[in-house]
């Protein structure tokens, strides 16, 4: 199983600021199989990014994904109030795994 | 529209088993695998396993290999997850989640809270 490590654990930022979230894999992951999800309290996760850099349907363009191999990044260019949430990366190799999550909180 | 509707909350005693259902609608059930993912209180997401809804083949996380069984009823478009030998550490919200087939999950159920307590 490929282990995904997300950092930082918590990101304290103000609305309008840029958020940069990291996801590091214990071994190389195909970019096709790297996804990001957003989860708000009491809700199921929501797909944001698939294939490392493609936005899911209805996702605003302030969300972007990048990276390859073992290092992937989710960037939120300008934080809106509704973006404060927990973000998870996920990979699919021989099996599926999630990172531990990054909480983006209001500073 | 795609919907995944899960069964209601469960309260179980240690050592018991629980079976959670997930009824799918809005798409061809047998065309997509179904994952089961759980989330303990205040914790992250943990993949448990999946089932190919077409042929019934399953793949389980090594962590749950000995205790989880995922099945499906194609006539009713329902996927099931059964977890045995429950302990308090199994207290969590359990989600079914549709596999896009090319590397990601595109739809999630609303979650089922399973509480294990004596």
Concise description?
Chain A is mainly β and 107 residues long.
What does it look like?
The complex is a heterodimer of chains A (107) and B (118). Helix content of chain A is 0%, strand content 57%. Chain A has strands at residues 4-7, 10-13, 19-29, 34-39, 46-50, 54-55, 63-76, 86-92, 96-98, 102-106. With 118 residues, chain B is an all-beta fold. The radius of gyration of chain B is 13 Å and the shape is globular. Chain B contains no helices and 11 strands. Chain A binds chain B through residues 1, 30, 32-35, 37, 39, 44-47, 50-51, 56, 88, 90, 92, 95-101, and chain B through 35, 37, 44-47, 50, 59, 61-62, 95, 97, 100, 102-106, 108-111.
Explain the layout of strands and helices:
The complex is a heterodimer of chains A (107) and B (118).
Chain A: E1 4-7, E2 10-13, E3 19-29, E4 34-39, E5 46-50, E6 54-55, E7 63-76, E8 86-92, E9 96-98, E10 102-106
Chain B: E1 3-6, E2 10-12, E3 18-25, E4 33-39, E5 46-52, E6 58-60, E7 68-73, E8 78-83, E9 92-99, E10 105-108, E11 112-116
Parallel strand pairs in B: 2-11
Antiparallel strand pairs in B: 1-3, 3-8, 4-5, 4-9, 5-6, 7-8, 9-10, 9-11
Short descriptors:
heterodimer; A: 107 residues; mainly beta; 3-stranded antiparallel β-sheet; 10 strands; 57% strand; globular; B: 118 residues; 7-stranded mixed β-sheet
Q: What composes the largest sheet of chain A? A: 7 strands, mixed
Count of helices of chain A? 0
| Radius of gyration of chain B over all CA atoms, rounded | 13 Å
Q: Runs of chain B with pLDDT <50, length 5+?
A: none
Q: Which value, in Å, is the CA radius of gyration of chain A? A: 13 Å
The proportion of residues forming helix of chain A, as a percent range, comes to under 10%
Shape of chain A: globular
Roughly what fraction of the amino acids of chain A lie in strands?
over 45%
Biggest interface: chains and residue counts?
A-B, 25 and 22 residues
């Amino acid at each position: 199983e490929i282990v995904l490590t997300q950092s930082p654990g918590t990101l304290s930022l103000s609305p309008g600021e840029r958020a940069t979230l990291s996801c590091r894999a214990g071994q190389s992951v195909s970019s096709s199989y790297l996804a990001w999800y957003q989860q708000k309290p009491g809700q199921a996760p929501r797909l944001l990014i698939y294939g490392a850099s493609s936005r899911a349907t209805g996702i605003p363009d302030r969300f972007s994904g990048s990276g390859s191999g073992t290092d992937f990044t989710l960037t939120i260019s300008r934080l809106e109030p509704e973006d404060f949430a927990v973000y998870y990366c996920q990979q699919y190799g021989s099996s599926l795994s999630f990172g531990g999550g990054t909480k983006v909180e209001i500073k | 529209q795609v919907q995944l509707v899960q069964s209601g909350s469960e309260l179980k005693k240690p050592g018991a088993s629980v079976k959670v259902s997930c009824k799918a609608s809005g798409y061809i059930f047998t065309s997509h695998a179904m994952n089961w993912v759980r989330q303990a209180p205040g914790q992250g997401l943990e993949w448990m396993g999946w089932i190919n809804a077409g042929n019934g083949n399953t793949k389980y996380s090594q962590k749950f290999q000995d205790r989880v069984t995922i099945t499906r009823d194609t006539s009713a478009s329902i996927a099931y997850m059964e977890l045995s030998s429950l302990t308090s550490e199994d207290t969590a919200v359990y989600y079914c989640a549709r596999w896009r087939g090319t590397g990601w999950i595109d739809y999630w159920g609303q979650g089922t809270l399973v509480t294990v307590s004596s």
